[in-house]
Amino acid sequence: MALQTNKVVQVYPMNTRVSPDPPVTIDNETGRGCILQINVTGITGTATLTVSMNGQISDESTPYNIISSPTISAVGSVILRVYPAITPVSNAAASDIIPRFVNVSCAHGGSGTITYSIYASIAL
Question: CB-based contacts of 82: which residues, under 8 Å, 6+ apart?
Fold first, then answer.
């Protein structure tokens, strides 16, 4: 019998961006939670990034916000966690169950470029 494992998804590949890419929807078949890892490796000018993890009940429903990152304005890694019964921390962790569809979107602020990638781990 095969064991189920967490599913890792590359949401956005490492790339230098002036404006955000379109939102990405992850099809969650069995996960209860999600970890998003946002890796920023370069920033020019005053560019900033805010990442939102949104839930969708169906692929046709309107996304609703589960958690958003703080405004990111420095090189480094930011982790967002969503899982039932974890301690909520503003802009870092939410005690919730992720629905069938998880939508990840980015917003850029300031001017300049920002280089980043985002990965998701769907946790059972």
Answer: 33, 34, 35, 53, 66, 67, 93, 94, 96, 98
